[in-house]
Amino acid sequence: MKASIVVVTYKHAQFIDKALKSVMDQKADFAFEVVVSEDASTDGTREIVKAWQGRYPETIRLVLSERNVRSNRVVARGFEAARGNYVALLDGDDFWTSPDKLARQVAMLDADPGLSLCFTNAHVVDAAGEPTGQLWTPAATQHRLTLGDLWQGNPFPTCGSLFRRSCLPSVPAWYDGFFPVTDWPLYLLFGEHGDIAFVPEPMGAYRLHPGGLYSSQADDQKLAAMDSLYRRLEQCLDPRHLDDLRGGRRRYFLDWAREHLRLGNTGLAWMSLERARGGGAGWSSGDGLEVAMLSARMLVRSAMRREARR
Q1: Residues 167 and 116: beta-carbon distance below 8 Å
Q2: Which secondary structure element, helix H or strand E, spans residue 207, and what is its range?
Q3: Residue 87: Cβ within 10 Å count
Q4: 3-class secondary-structure state, position 154
Q5: Which DSSP category does 263 fall into?
Q6: Is pLDDT at 204 greater than 60 in this prediction?
Q7: Which of 125, 131, 160, 257 lies in disulfide reach of 119, CB 3.0 to 4.6 Å?
Q8: Of 11-25, 118-132, 195-209, 213-227, which gets the smallest average pLDDT?
């Protein structure tokens, strides 16, 4: 089997048809399978995926939860069930927009054994599937990256992924506990075994909607979630990556400090700056001036706000 598409779904009744149709519409001169990992939805999602499996019994297999697992085990078991040389991930509320997305990525990995995974870009769409005008990954992102480029956070959409299965024969048990962050820890694990290719052309759609497990969180919740994620990664990944991970954490939160300050969110900017310094990351020798300038600008903004409230 050349490729497997793992579709992970929970309460996606209004979206899953479009996701599965975009997969079954793929044009490829090789065999592929679809593994649907469904987590005991209560909105009719399970009945919909069963109907799809009945229509395509030779292609679609179902992996079903007896009860809601609510962990990354739903993703990991999809990988474990996959029989393809390559594995693509697709969330049940997203969809592919190019019928040759899978074939083009398979050709890339076939041609370059030094790649552990590759990504296409994706349009960001609203709940109705209409484009917002945004791309998930900046088009200027370099076309070939290494593990070192991933420490500062996730630069790629899940729906753009294709993994070389042999790079990670089994998903480590600690991965299950990183829910609802499903993709970035996987990218780090695969990035240890080869380079990452990026295709700037969008071939998928990432859907923003109120039911999104991460995108629907408030900004302070997202900062707290990423802080927790970095701390857990320190405990789980190979210790030889510790300095790089802490450096990535520092840059990630410094970037958000600048962005929140630009948007006028002084409280969130302070929160980001504190998290950049925390968790053992400390400051590098080149951070001093930037941190001092950010702190000064935040103090001025805070003083101006206090004055305006008088």
Answers
A1: yes
A2: strand 195-207
A3: 22
A4: coil
A5: T
A6: yes
A7: 160
A8: 213-227
**Other beta carbons within 10 Å of 84:** 21
Structure tokens at 11: 């309460």
Which residue is it, tokens 């593990």?
Answer: 147
Residue 58 is given by DSSP the state T
User: Which tokens belong to 182?
Assistant: 């499903």
CA 292 to chain CA centroid, nearest Å: 32
pLDDT-derived band at 265 (thresholds 50, 70, 90) equals: confident
Contact assessment for residue 35 and residue 118, using Cβ atoms and an 8 Å cutoff: no
Residue 167 has phi, psi (to 5 degrees) of: -70, -25
CATH class of the domain defined by 3-207: alpha beta
Q: Does pTM surpass 0.90? A: no
All residues at 6 or more sequence positions from 2 whose CB lies less than 8 Å from its CB, including other chains: 28, 30, 31, 32, 84, 85, 86, 106
Distance of CA 11 to the CA centre of its chain: 19
Q: CA–CA separation, 310 vs 305, rounded Å?
A: 9
**Contact partners, residue 12, CB within 8 Å, separation at least 6:** 19, 41, 45, 91, 92, 93
Answer yes or no: is pLDDT of 117 > 90.
yes
Smallest CA-to-CA distance from 251 within 283, 228, 222, 279 is with: 283
- In the chain, list all ranges with CATH 3.90.550.10: 3-207
**Is residue 213 over pLDDT 90?**
no
